[in-house]
């Protein structure tokens, strides 16, 4: 193109196409391809288990194995009668409950899994074991000072002469190991780091009330024999009158003197105290362990009373015996409830995409 002054003006060429703009990118977080991870319900926090806690687990395993082995040899020879807890299937079932529980819980504690669960089981179970140990010492040593009727391994015997056998020794060693494990568990409790988010906290008051009632019921039933001799009805041949004659049955928990009386008091107090204390333990799994320890003690006693009534033809199952078995089953129900009573799993919102 020519300008007015005769100079040539060059017009720049138009671009044929506009340059492509870069596509906008999203700056937000990417949406995960898979489902969002699930946060643990309890928010369980676990630290390294202390060495003392593992020692407690080993002691529980040893106590369980020793107690199970003690069921098979002769327990005592009372008045010339050899007694063995495993003479029948019912006695073997009642005797194996505590050893199996000790081996299962102690094995997990020795491996370092959920340590306060095992420590609570050992700490609360050590109290009743001490009471039972004192009763066993009385039965093997000083029960002949004041002979009385006893029901041992389903047989009614008079403690006029008592000889100790291998079954009693193994059972006493198992109880002593359980007591030692309980003492060390109390010492290791404060050194163990384990807590949760408090999923059980709203239900703890109701759980504590129910456990306390069951503990008191268990003690009231422990005081009286679980299997006893029925009263006899005797007819006078001259007058024809019928008279009820009370037969001397087995002694109650607080009717024995000395070590047995002290052991009975310790057993009753430990059952009530353990029932009250267990629901207050943290975390939730510690409550489960404490309730499990009381459930094993009470249920073992209830099954032993039922075994005595079934095996012996002279004894009858009493109302306290039935109540003791029901108290044991109630503690088992509370243990399962404390284990299952938790909120539904929640998803981690920070892991979800926006």
Task: Characterize the structure shown.
- With 354 residues, the protein is mostly helical.
- It has one domain (41-242, 262-344).
- It contains eight helices and 13 strands.
- Strands 4-3-7 form a three-stranded antiparallel sheet. It has a two-stranded antiparallel sheet with strand order 1-13.
- The chain starts with 37 loop residues before the first strand and ends in a 7-residue tail after the last strand.
- Keywords: Membrane, Transmembrane, Transmembrane helix.
- Residues 9-22 have a biased composition (Low complexity).
- The chain crosses the membrane at residues 55-78, 90-110, 117-138, 168-194, 206-227, 259-278, 285-305, 317-339.
